[in-house]
UniProtKB/TrEMBL annotation:
NCBIfam families to which the protein is assigned, alphabetical: TIGR00149_YjbQ (TIGR00149)
Species whose genome carries this gene: Glycine max
InterPro entries for the chain: UPF0047_YjbQ-like, YjbQ-like_sf
Name of the protein this chain belongs to: Secondary thiamine-phosphate synthase enzyme
Stored Gene3D superfamilies: YjbQ-like
Amino acid sequence: MQVSSICLPAKVPVRVKSLHTNPATVNDPTSTAKVAAPKWAQKTITLPPLKRGCHLITSKIVKEVRQELSEYQCGLAHLFLHHTSASLTINENYDYDVRDDTETFLNGMVPEGPSAPWKHTLEGPDDMPAHIKSSMFGCALMIPISNGKLNMGTWQGIWLCEHRDYPTPRTVVVTLNGI
């Protein structure tokens, strides 16, 4: 592990921890250095239907990939949600009020009901607003892996945001890559 300091244009010192291999030894047939080959793992997780709102799912995701995750010292975890009326985001993991306030904000930003201007209403009055909210947050996350764990901040958690009144089970594909 190498620790170094760098300076940003504003001359603010930043501590950087880096874990890396020396590329020169990877292609050197005379080198005795052992370099770990990158590996991949993938798991599809089905979450039960959750009521409309923002839900902390970090522990459910980690529980399902804990064994595979423990095999990585350095890498990336990619989470992809298979739906267009729910979304994933990383946000506050402690105070439930943040999740409630986020749902209130989304409902204020994206109107629904008979007075809403949406043409797509075949699947109900909450469907088009759900698609818009899903696009606002997105359906994918990328999280660093360090020493067998997701490397998130102390107060960060993975949220599933359910944007429909009548939810269905949601599937999340977790892909791990690294060494």
